[in-house]
């Protein structure tokens, strides 16, 4: 019977075992998934599985069980593969059955040949997804999800003799803590890596730890020497790093969509044979018409070297509601543990909210109204679509941002510390004209070339309009601006398939910072009224962050993610009251309140209630929402009149 | 050359066989239990065929004979040498694929069919290894005669006979196809096709599998499951009949049967391992096509020592290089002579799933196609095609040195038949292919729906349920979606009458106009959404582009042409610039687009309904002004809209209350609950598609009468006050609306209720848009001439008053401008603006009564 380590280190041998036991009937596939499901359910077992997000590929053992938190960037065509095949020994004529599932290559022994005509052969189908790490994933997500895996690290140490040559230098950590959080995780990581790799893989076991450190902190991929032009790994955002993966899915692939965030558990395949395939085929392509049906470009994209783009053969895959490692992965389940977690947190919700409000007020230079709206924005999410209308989007335009200082830059940095995924889009004529916003299909390589707007759900997109100068937008620029506008208004992006366009719904929180009113549409414009102008913006903002305890910061993070997932309803009673209110307001001045305003007020009321942890609307909240809206509008009007006077 | 070629092809040998197992038939029972048998006569012919050199010699001779020898020779040859019924004459399925251009009957050469592939050869080899003695084995039935092809349940003789019966007898007078021009539907369809082949000389017989299915279910099943065995049998059968009938016919090669429209698979996404080696039909869009690939069919070798030549045929994708010269026995002396080898054309095409078939949120799948011989270069990237072919899967060997194999198969489709789905779209009305096919249950369900008394209201309610109220507007859009009946008056010189209904929505910003447009755009299959701000005339119509690769001029079509037979939604209509708008004049009445650009002069159809939205010029609707004044659009354009609706914010407590309730419910109701309340978008879509496709109402007697009355009434209202209140255009609009309403009811006849509703809707729209704000009277001339009749009357009155004033002043040659204005103001009881005064002056100047120079007015 396989022991604990086996299912982690050599899952294929377990599959083989199950396969051998059940071979005549086809039930073995189900048993395999069930076996691994059971194993992963055991206490914290998921933490034991090394994650491809944290550990570079070359430190992981081939054919071991790994996990990967990723976004589906593209879907390739389904593959037919040999689910079961038979090998025959030409000398002895002995026949052996093998399984082809979870493998890229149908293996057979040195003296054996695969019998392609065997009646036992079963052809099956699987789907390949091209997955990239979640775009814009914040540093703290990576860091925390890595730190919550101490079990794995210590276990690996315990299992194999610890490396004596390398001792992690702990002093470095405290020294770095305040300085730069972005650099921090990679340093941390590589220390652990040093340990795990030295014991995990026998190939790298002898490598000098010092070298490992430099390699890992350099942070870029190890590009195989024989692959001369660097492969575009097709990350949606520029400057992203991390492994891209070909994820092979064996069941229920129809349920996954492009841009879904998944956590997959599967068998890592980095068989160097796969790379040989490519070079071989490239050589022979001129001779064999069968092979030249794919262009070399397509070859490169669809079967890149395994060292660069590893394959994962999925045993278990689940869609993630969120990627915040501080929360249980799945909140819907009626598990006592998650319930307990949620109720515990809910009990201390109001102080957290107060603290967060204070924090954001400081960040917004003492403007508490703007801070209030920022909270509402950060917990907003598209919860439903009514024919074409997305409900629950709450795009905030923060106007009146000081232009000169690096205020917007620092504001984004703060938001980055609060939300799991974000991107800062600095609008400029240059960037609008030259960036790729909309993903488009490259038919030569047969793949979806990613663009800035291919983002996972609930990513915060902060658009900085303060840097925008006057100038001429070219065609690409106009398209990009239109795409941004569509994204904000309809929460969808029309991907360009050359011959036609296809609509992909999305759920992206857009925050626009601008001086005057933004040129992009928005749901609500809040004019910033700074109470204090710090002489040194840089110092002020960074001191804000250091002033917050890490534990409090974590609470903020839980707060923002959790509230987004709560349900909400309005009782009949309150509906009546709102109705009355609306009619009353219209009676006094029909011009001032339109259906649009009611929409906005209801939105504000929804998120206001949720931000206080209430899942139903109360009369007080409704009044408060109205009050907030009135304040906001008054401020806008005041601003307009000020501008009018100046002119 | 020959040695490297043999390395990759060795794998292919395996590949051919590898594609056998996945067929369900094979998976169930081991191959050894099956026997491939042919008729006893053909078994004899099996063995010698593949390699016998005499056949080759004969083939070239026969080819010559085809062109040079007198027809009598062939004619006389029939009774003497050939027995027509013998399969030997036409070759058995197995021998036919050898690719030998043998001489067929009367010199018509057989042409190999690479589209049927070489996988079969594996079976043949198995057959040989099993030994010929065992070859003929009776299977299945007790009937000793039932012999079947190995691995299948196909009996060649009976299959052939049944197909011949199908060709000779199949009649379906009801089924009409666009290629059927000139066919007598009451005669056997395929016999007429054969006649056509005789006349035209294109030796391809396209067979609709649907016909076959209705004629002989079992034969159809066999065709689907074993296409590579059955199709050659069909070829045989067709040729027998053909040469029986037209013995003198000269064809390039023997007739090849091309089945199409197999019902097996329609969607690429549904392809699964069970479809391998079966006949499938899928639809999709061509995205890439490769260069022509010459594929060697027969290699020509010459010994370098003794110059002895030999031909080697391709066998399972591989050329076996002769290692020993047969003549001089030198080893490894044979060299490949490229120029004398035989090649066939081949092309790789990538087909992508059509956008309609794709589930939301997924990327389209692609599949590789191989086209052979005549089918090469038949399609271009961007074409929508239905492809019928055989689905193949071949394993890839990872590394010839290592025995392991990549466990993934490569899949492709060998194309047998293409059918372009939209090639004719720009040229003529092509309703047949446009129609979506509905299942019978669906049609039944839709008809059931149409019988409901309140179907019109129900559908209107289902339209954009998230937008509150505006019922009449929704009804208008609903009628627009259905459209009127198309009438053709070309022979009387008026061309096509417009059947499309155009609608303009104008009103305050933020009254969900854009949302309505978005909804409509998402609902209709061929909708386009543009914004007046962002589109130019070029983007709307068509433009000429130079293809960077071929340096060829290409006509690229814009939104209006693309939405031919659909709806073009134009947001911010008022922001559109003049030149762009002028394009719409032609489109909105003539439904065509004329282009004269870069040497391309053409007229494209643009039978698009236009749904436009415009904002008032002052951002808020000014109720004191007319529609024209509010949106500042030329009246020539406005009069082309059948319905103009105002979307204003009603000031009404009850309305506010309902609106508030509606909005609040949006914010907490779950999605499922919302779905329940309204008709599904898919049902609505199907309902409209069905009505548009199948219902074509004509005016009934009664309805015509009431239309006439309505028109006369409209004219009468105006004539009492000295103004024209209706023009023929309004009558046309009424007819269209009435027809559309009849379509909603799935009625073939327009009845009085349809006219009533059309009148009501038309009146409602007019009431909103053509009411003169000064008098409160509906005045159609606001829309047709841009000015209300009362306004015109006032202008005249003022001019007369001014004339009187001037005349009363006696004979003064010139007057001061300001003085005159002041005098007029003092005299008149209503306020006179400077503009009004100037207008009156201009009117008088037009009458040559006075001239205005600077600040002085001179009398003439």
UniProtKB/TrEMBL annotation, chain A:
Domain of life: Eukaryota
GO CC list: nucleus
Compositional bias per record (Polar residues), positions renumbered to this chain: 158-168
GO molecular function, one term: chromatin binding
Intracellular or extracellular location(s): Nucleus
Annotated region (Disordered), positions in chain: 158-187
Keyword terms of this UniProt record: Nucleus
Xref: InterPro entries: MCM_complex-bd (IPR019140)
Pfam families: MCM_bind (PF09739)
Biological process annotations from GO: DNA-templated DNA replication
Keyword match Nucleus: yes
This protein's record includes keyword Nucleus: yes
Family in the record: Belongs to the MCMBP family.
PANTHER family tied to this protein: MINI-CHROMOSOME MAINTENANCE COMPLEX-BINDING PROTEIN
Designated name of the protein: Mini-chromosome maintenance complex-binding protein
Automatic annotation (TrEMBL), chain B:
Residue span(s) of domain MCM C-terminal AAA(+) ATPase: 455-663
GO cellular component, one term: MCM complex
Superkingdom of the organism of origin: Eukaryota
Keywords for this protein: ATP-binding, Cell cycle, DNA replication, DNA-binding, Helicase, Hydrolase, Nucleotide-binding, Nucleus
UniProt entry tagged with the keyword GTP-binding: no
A Pfam family of this chain: MCM
Catalytic function, reaction form: ATP + H2O = ADP + phosphate + H(+)
Function (record text): Acts as a component of the MCM2-7 complex (MCM complex) which is the replicative helicase essential for 'once per cell cycle' DNA replication initiation and elongation in eukaryotic cells. Core component of CDC45-MCM-GINS (CMG) helicase, the molecular machine that unwinds template DNA during replication, and around which the replisome is built.
Family designation: Belongs to the MCM family.
Name the record gives this protein: DNA replication licensing factor MCM4
Organism: Pomatorhinus ruficollis
């Amino acid at each position: 019977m396989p022991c604990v380590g086996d299912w982690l280190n050599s899952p294929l041998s377990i599959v083989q075992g199950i396969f051998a036991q059940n071979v005549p009937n086809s039930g073995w596939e189900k048993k395999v998934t069930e076996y691994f499901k059971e194993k992963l359910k055991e206490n914290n077992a998921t933490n034991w599985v090394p994650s491809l997000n944290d550990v570079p590929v070359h430190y992981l053992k081939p054919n071991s069980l790994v996990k990967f938190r990723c976004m589906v960037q593209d879907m390739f065509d389904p593959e037919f593969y040999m689910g079961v095949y038979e090998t025959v020994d030409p000398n002895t004529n002995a026949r052996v059955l093998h399984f082809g599932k979870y493998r890229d290559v149908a293996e057979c022994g040195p003296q054996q040949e695969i019998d392609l005509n065997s009646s036992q052969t079963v052809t099956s189908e699987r789907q390949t997804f091209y997955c990239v790490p979640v775009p814009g994933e914040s540093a703290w997500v990576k860091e925390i999800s890595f730190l919550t895996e101490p079990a794995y690290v210590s276990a690996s140490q315990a299992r194999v003799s610890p490396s004596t040559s390398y001792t992690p230098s702990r002093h470095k950590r405290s020294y770095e803590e305040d300085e730069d959080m972005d650099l921090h995780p990679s340093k941390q990581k590589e220390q652990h890596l040093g340990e795990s790799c030295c014991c995990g893989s026998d190939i790298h076991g002898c490598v000098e730890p010092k070298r490992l450190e430099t390699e890992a902190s350099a942070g870029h991929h190890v590009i195989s020497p024989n692959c001369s032009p660097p492969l575009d790994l097709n990350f949606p955002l520029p400057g992203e790093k991390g492994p891209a993966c070909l994820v092979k899915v064996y069941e229920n692939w129809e349920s996954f969509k492009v841009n879904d965030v998944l956590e997959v558990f599967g068998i890592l395949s980095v068989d160097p044979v796969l790379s040989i395939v490519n070079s071989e085929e490239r050589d022979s392509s001129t001779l064999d018409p069968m092979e030249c049906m794919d262009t070399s470009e397509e070859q490169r994209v669809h079967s890149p070297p395994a060292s660069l783009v590893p394959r994962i053969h999925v045993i278990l895959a689940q869609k993630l509601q969120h990627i915040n490692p501080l929360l249980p992965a799945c909140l819907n389940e009626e598990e006592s543990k998650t319930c307990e977690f949620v109720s515990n947190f809910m009990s201390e919700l109001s102080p957290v909210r107060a603290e967060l409000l204070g924090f954001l007020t400081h960040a917004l230079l003492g403007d508490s109204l703007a801070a209030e709206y920022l909270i509402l924005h950060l917990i907003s999410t598209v919860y439903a679509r009514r024919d074409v209308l997305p409900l629950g989007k709450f795009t905030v335009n923060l106007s009146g941002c000081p232009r000169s200082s690096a205020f917007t830059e620092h504001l984004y940095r703060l938001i980055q510390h609060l939300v799991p995924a974000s991107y800062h889009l600095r609008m400029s004529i240059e960037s609008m004209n030259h960036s790729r916003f909309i993903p488009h299909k490259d038919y030569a390589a047969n793949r979806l070339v990613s663009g800035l707007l291919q983002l996972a759900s609930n990513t915060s997109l902060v658009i900085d309009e303060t840097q925008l100068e006057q100038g001429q937008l070219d065609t690409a620029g106009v398209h990009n601006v239109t795409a941004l506008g569509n994204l904000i208004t309809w929460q969808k992006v029309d991907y360009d398939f050359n011959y036609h366009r296809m609509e992909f719904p999305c759920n992206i929180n857009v925050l626009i910072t601008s001086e005057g009113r933004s040129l992009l549409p928005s749901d609500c414009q809040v004019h910033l009224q700074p109470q204090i102008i710090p002489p040194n913006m840089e110092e002020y903002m960074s001191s804000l962050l250091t002033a917050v305890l890490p534990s409090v910061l974590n609470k903020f993070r839980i707060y923002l993610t959790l509230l987004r997932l709560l349900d909400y309803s309005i009782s009949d009673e309150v509906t009546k009251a709102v109705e009355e209110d609306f009619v009353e307001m219209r009676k006094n001045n029909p011009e001032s309140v339109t259906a649009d305003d009611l929409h906005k007020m209801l939105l504000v009321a929804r998120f206001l209630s949720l931000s206080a942890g209430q899942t139903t609307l109360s009369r007080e909240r409704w009044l408060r929402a109205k009050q907030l809206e009135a304040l906001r509008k008054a401020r806008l009007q005041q601003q307009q009149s000020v501008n009018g006077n100046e002119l | 050359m020959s040695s490297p070629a043999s390395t990759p092809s060795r794998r292919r040998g395996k590949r051919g066989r590898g594609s056998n197992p996945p067929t369900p038939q094979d998976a169930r029972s081991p191959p050894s239990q099956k026997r491939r048998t042919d008729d006893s006569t053909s078994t004899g012919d099996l063995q010698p065929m593949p390699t016998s050199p005499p056949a080759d010699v004969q083939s070239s001779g026969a080819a010559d004979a085809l062109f040079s020898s007198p027809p009598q020779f062939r004619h006389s040859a029939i009774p003497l040498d050939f027995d027509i019924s013998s399969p030997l004459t036409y070759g058995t399925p197995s021998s036919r694929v050898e690719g030998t251009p043998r001489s067929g009957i009367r010199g018509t050469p057989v042409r190999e069919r690479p589209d049927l592939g070489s996988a079969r050869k594996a079976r043949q080899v198995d057959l040989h290894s099993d030994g010929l003695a065992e070859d003929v084995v009776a299977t299945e039935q007790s009937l000793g005669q039932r012999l079947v092809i190995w691995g299948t349940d196909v009996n060649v003789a009976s299959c052939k006979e049944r197909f011949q019966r199908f060709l000779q007898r199949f009649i379906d007078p009801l089924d009409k196809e666009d290629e059927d021009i000139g066919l007598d539907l009451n005669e056997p369809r395929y016999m007429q096709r054969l006649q056509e082949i005789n006349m035209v000389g294109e030796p391809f017989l396209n067979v609709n599998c649907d016909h076959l299915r209705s004629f002989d279910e079992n034969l159809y099943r066999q065709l689907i499951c074993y296409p590579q065995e059955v199709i050659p049998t069909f070829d045989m059968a067709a040729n027998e009949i053909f040469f029986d009938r037209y013995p003198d016919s000269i064809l390039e090669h023997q007739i090849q049967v091309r089945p199409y429209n197999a019902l097996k698979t329609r969607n690429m996404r549904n392809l699964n391992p069970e479809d391998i080696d079966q006949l499938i039909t899928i639809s999709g869009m061509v995205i890439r096509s490769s260069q022509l690939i010459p594929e060697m069919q027969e290699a020509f070798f010459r010994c370098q020592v003794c110059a002895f030549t030999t031909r080697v045929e391709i066998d399972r994708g591989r050329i076996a290089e002769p290692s020993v010269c047969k003549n001089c026995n030198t080893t490894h002396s044979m060299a490949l002579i490229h120029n004398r080898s035989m090649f066939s054309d081949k092309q790789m095409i990538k087909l992508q799933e059509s956008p309609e078939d794709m589930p939301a949120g997924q990327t389209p799948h692609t599949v590789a196609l191989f086209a052979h011989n005549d089918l090469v270069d038949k399609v271009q990237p961007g074409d929508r095609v239905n492809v019928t072919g055989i689905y193949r899967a071949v394993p890839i060997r990872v590394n010839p040195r290592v025995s392991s194999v990549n466990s993934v198969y490569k899949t492709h489709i060998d194309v047998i038949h293409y059918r372009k789905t939209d090639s004719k779209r720009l040229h003529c009305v092509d309703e047949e292919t446009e129609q979506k096919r509905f299942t019978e249950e669906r049609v039944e369900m839709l008809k059931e729906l149409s019988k409901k008394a309140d179907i019109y209201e129900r559908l209107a309610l289902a339209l954009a349920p998230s937008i509150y109220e505006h019922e009449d507007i929704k009804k208008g859009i609903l009628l627009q979606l259905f459209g009127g009946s198309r009438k053709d008056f070309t022979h009387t010189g008026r061309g096509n009458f417009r059947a499309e209904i155009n609608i303009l929505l104008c009103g305050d910003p933020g009254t969900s106009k854009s949302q309505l447009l978005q909804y409509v755009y998402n609902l209709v299959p061929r909708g386009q959404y543009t914004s007046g701000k962002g589109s130019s005339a070029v983007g709307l119509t068509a433009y000429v582009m130079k293809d960077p690769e071929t340096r060829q001029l290409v006509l690229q079509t814009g939104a209006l042409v693309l939405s031919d037979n659909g709806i073009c939604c134009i947001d911010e209509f008022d922001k559109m610039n003049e030149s762009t708008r002028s394009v719409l004049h032609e489109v909105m009445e003539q439904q065509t687009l004329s282009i004269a650009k870069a040497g391309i002069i053409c007229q494209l159809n643009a039978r698009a309904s236009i749904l436009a939205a415009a904002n008032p010029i002052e951002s808020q609707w000014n109720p004191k002004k007319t529609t024209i004044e509010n949106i500042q659009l030329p009246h020539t354009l406005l009069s082309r809209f059948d319905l103009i609706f105002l979307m204003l914010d009603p000031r009404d407590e009850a309305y506010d209350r309902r609106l508030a309730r509606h909005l609040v419910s949006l914010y907490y109701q779950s999605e499922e609950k919302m779905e329940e309340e309204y008709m599904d978008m898919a049902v609505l879509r199907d309902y409209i598609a069905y009505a548009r496709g199948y219902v074509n109402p004509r005016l009934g007697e009664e309805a015509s009468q009431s239309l006439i009355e309505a028109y006369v009434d409209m004219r009468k209202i105006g004539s009492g006050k000295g103004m024209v209140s209706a023009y023929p255009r309004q009558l046309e609009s009424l007819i269209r609306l009435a027809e559309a309403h009849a379509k909603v009811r799935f009625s073939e006849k327009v009845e009085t209720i349809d006219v009533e509703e059309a009148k009501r809707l038309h009146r409602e729209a007019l009431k909103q848009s053509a009411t003169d704000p000064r008098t409160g009277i509906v005045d159609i001339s606001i829309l047709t001439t841009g000015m209300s009749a009362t306004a015109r009357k006032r202008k005249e009155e003022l001019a007369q008053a001014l004339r009187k004033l001037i005349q009363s002043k006696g004979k003064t040659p010139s007057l001061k401008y300001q003085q005159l204005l002041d005098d007029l103001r003092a005299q008149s009881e209503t306020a006179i603006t400077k503009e009004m005064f100037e207008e009156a002056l201009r009117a008088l100047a037009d009458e040559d009564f006075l001239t205005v120079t600077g600040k002085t007015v001179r009398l003439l």
